[in-house]
Design brief:
Largest sheet: 4 strands, mixed
Number of helices: 9
Order of helices and strands: HEHEEEEHEHEEEHHHHH
Strand order of the largest sheet: 6-7-9-8
Distance between the termini: 49 Å
Structural class: alpha+beta
Number of strands: 9
């Protein structure tokens, strides 16, 4: 089983973050935990939190192991606990390339309990919101909505509107149109000018 886990990690690539739940299809929880223990002792994987690991990247330039991607950590925790999550405004802006500031505190909205995790000297926080608000399309859709919410009226400015429009794929536009009825009127008013008119039929 250890070889199969390692083959999967190599396929996912350096920097991937995972939990035992991601490997339940390979065998029992006890056997998976033992394999993780063995791989951790060999320095192949790194423990980030109880039951959460990464396949760390190494920088040849810096000659050091890089810090984990907190968005990938958040997604792994969400899969493990079966939460629906969406990034808060500052996190969304950063991951969409609309801000160069890397937040030291990453906040995600979740239909799970409010919890905080310290990961490699950075804070990963989950804030509980109603289930309806936590399930606004896929992760890409949620991230776009939170970025626009954080920008507010600035989203329609010359500085941001072109950048936001360049992120819109047909699939994302479809998700956003479906999510519009669940959003506040203020947010709908800002989003509509950014979206092309939907075509039906």
């Amino acid at each position: 089983m250890e070889k199969r886990i390692l083959a999967t990690l190599r396929r996912w690539g350096r920097g991937c973050v995972f939990s035992n739940r991601d490997f339940y299809h390979l065998g029992s929880e006890g056997n998976i935990a033992w394999c993780f223990y063995q791989l951790k002792n060999k320095g192949v994987i790194r423990a980030l939190w109880k039951g959460i690991y990464d396949y760390p990247k190494f920088s040849t330039l810096l000659q050091e192991t890089l810090a984990p991607d907190l968005d990938k950590v958040a997604q792994a925790l969400a899969r493990k606990h079966q939460w629906s999550i969406q990034p808060s405004g500052n996190v969304a802006l950063n991951y969409l390339g609309l801000s160069t500031q890397v937040p030291t505190r990453c906040l995600y909205l979740s239909d799970g309990p409010s919890r905080s995790f310290e990961i490699e000297g950075r804070t990963l926080e989950f804030k509980h919101i109603p289930v309806r608000e936590a399930r606004l399309g896929n992760n890409e859709c949620s991230m776009f909505i939170q970025a626009v919410k954080e920008l507010g009226e600035r989203a329609l400015s010359d500085e941001y509107s072109a950048a936001l429009s360049s992120l819109l794929t047909p699939a994302l536009c479809n998700q956003l149109h479906k999510a519009l009825p669940q959003l506040s009127e203020k947010l709908r008013r800002i989003l509509r000018p950014l979206l092309p008119t939907p075509h039906y039929g």
